[in-house]
Amino acid sequence: GLAAAAAWVPWLLAAFRYAIDGPTARFTALGAAAGGMMILAGYFQTAFYGFLVLGLYATAEIARERANWLRALGVLAGMSAGAVALGAIQILPGLELTAHTIRAGANFSNSTEGVLHLGSLATLFAPDALGALSGNYHGPSDITQYYFYAGLLLVPLAVLGAVKATRVRIFALAILAV
Questions:
Q1: What is the tens place of the pLDDT at every residue in 100-113?
Q2: What is the pTM assigned to this prediction?
């Protein structure tokens, strides 16, 4: 669910960009469909982050081109409302069912699990740095929080992109802030 939801984020951003530059209604509807599919993928936290990235992208776009701020806000509102309307087929029953689970009364305010430990970043370069793949795990308690490996080219490509992509650097920094 996490990867399926995250896969819709580039489509959401592209639809926003095209809605600002081209036929607004068509690309706003396509962006709403992409956002709805992101919600329907079933991983709400990733969908939330995807819309947060869209909001940051829209904010950066408004800061860069002040002339289109009203259009950008309209597109953002239309895409968000359409996505929530499309995802309502899953959201509403999910909210009803969640009220009947043990998590409804759980208190996570003092939980310290899921904190990023500096040593875990080594998995960006070496997939088995914490022993998660070999079975000799020696990291923090929740092993699922530390599967960071994304390929050996991830970090060099990110650095290259930061150096070369001057036009979109503000958008990339906004996304990284999330």
A1: 888 788 887 777 66
A2: 0.63
